[in-house]
Amino acid sequence: MTKYLLPAVVFLLFILESTFVRWVPGEVGPGEWVVVPRFSLVALLMIAFRQGRAAGVLYGLSIGLLYDMYYTGLIGVYTFSYALMAYVTGSSVRLLHYNIFVITLTCTLGVAAVEWIVYGILLIIGHTNEGLQTFAYTRFIPTLIFNAIFCVLLFKPLERLMEKQDLVDQSRV
């Protein structure tokens, strides 16, 4: 039962992204900021950092594909970017220490990279007409700030869940 709890939490966070968008007005703050919640991405980057790149890529492919199917008509953009960031994050485990500051920085950089990758791909194939400056000031910066705060709030509960799952997995060996 416990082994299904972490995927269920990530899926719940994926569902909460769309629910959150309905709760919060589309444009908030100064200059009509647009905040894009990336709850599931933040969680999968934490999982990749803690459990390694294989688990991270699996979650990245799964959530990215769900994201592509549910939110966009273009399959592959989020699947690729989520899996790539999970791989990079999971590969950095050996280089960085696991604490809230490193995780927050890593997740913020991961969200930033995904935002730029998706924006770049959509710009190249002509699926967006949003200018670079508009994207950077109205969407990119508010999204980073919001998701960094969410990462700090999610750190302890997700850490406890992963520890509980690790203890259950170790007891079965």
Automatic annotation (TrEMBL):
Keywords: Cell membrane, Cell shape, Membrane, Transmembrane, Transmembrane helix. Pfam families: MreD. GO terms for cellular component: plasma membrane. It is found in: Cell membrane. GO terms for biological process: regulation of cell shape. Belongs to the MreD family. This is Rod shape-determining protein MreD. The lineage of its organism: Bacteria, Bacillati, Bacillota, Bacilli, Bacillales.
